[in-house]
Amino acid sequence: MAFRGSQHFCGMLTPCISTMGLPAPQQVYSWFISIISIICNLFTLLSFYPIIDLSMLEYLVPSQSRRTLLKLLHVERKRESVSSLAKLAQVSFSTAYAELRAMELAGLAKSEYEGKRVFFRANDDSSDAVLLRSLLSSDNRGENRPSETVLANLERMSGAPGSKAENHQPVLSDEETLALAFKLARRNATVARVLPVALYKSLGALNLEKLKTLCLKEGEKKTLGFFLDLTSELAHLNHLRDVARKLHDNRLKKSESFFVNQPQGKYAKRMEARNTPKVAKRWKFRMNMDFENFRSHFEKFVSLRTPRENLRQRRD
């Protein structure tokens, strides 16, 4: 019924088509229906997958940690230990080590030993080195969203001031704010204290699956699990602990400092051993910030409501 007009139109063209040696009307009509179907499918796809403004490098290398480490080696020409590269890239030691070893296997990096220490540098002998360096150098969009943007959005979510962030910052989704804030928390203790508040207050509207996907992209899956577990203890939410447990990797045996810029001297390690909360130990993190520090900040800004009540309050 919908295409009766089209059928009539094809019928009108029959004399012309037969004299000109063109395809039969039925075939023209079939092509017409196929084209309409393709256009409809394209509109459907575009409605589910909006166009995202990505650079070529972001499209080819989705992992921000990998992009940053590649730039350090191939553009900034760094030759550093794993711990130094981890600090420069603002990622955990384990993330940096895994990425650097993968780069070495792919022929993009070389490791060199000096005593017991291992250093990584760019592999200039690789046939892809010139092309990779050109691609990395041309990506001038910047790797991280400005910290002020993340902090402003975190403050909007939590109501707890995380820093002297400037006003008029772009508004990010709650999931994107949290994923970026988890990375920022690894080098900013104030953000780490605020995160349980923001996470709790956003639970009613939070898409946890989307948050997991974004955290995986940022290399902060373990950090997400830790903060979900921590928030579940602070707010007494057993279902949140169940979500956190699904993210736990039982293969992790070695602990690491939560704060990537933490001094690694004997005194610092003693303070971490003394103050690390039990929940952090479950996730193989060490930190010089005890559970009471998180609890006092949480209770200052949170009156325990249901997630639905928190969502209603934020909308009002």
Q: How would you describe the overall organization of this protein?
A:
- The protein is mainly α and 316 residues long.
- The protein folds into 3 domains: 4-48; 56-138, Winged helix-like DNA-binding domain superfamily/Winged helix DNA-binding domain (Arc Repressor Mutant, subunit A, Orthogonal Bundle); 147-315, no CATH class.
- 61% of the residues lie in helices and 6% in strands.
- The chain contains 18 helices and 5 strands.
- The chain has helices at 4-12, 14-20, 25-48, 56-60, 64-74, 82-89, 93-105, 129-138, 147-158, 174-185, 189-201, 208-218, 221-235, 238-245, 266-275, 278-282, 291-301, 307-315; strands spanning 80-81, 109-114, 117-122, 256-257, 285-286.
- A 3-stranded antiparallel beta sheet has the order 1-3-2. It has a two-stranded parallel ribbon with strand order 4-5.
- A hairpin with a 2-residue loop joins strand 2 and strand 3 (117-122).
- Helix 5 packs across helix 6 and helix 10 (174-185) packs parallel to helix 12 (208-218).
- Mean pLDDT is 77; it is low at 1-10, 12-20, 43-54 and 140-144.
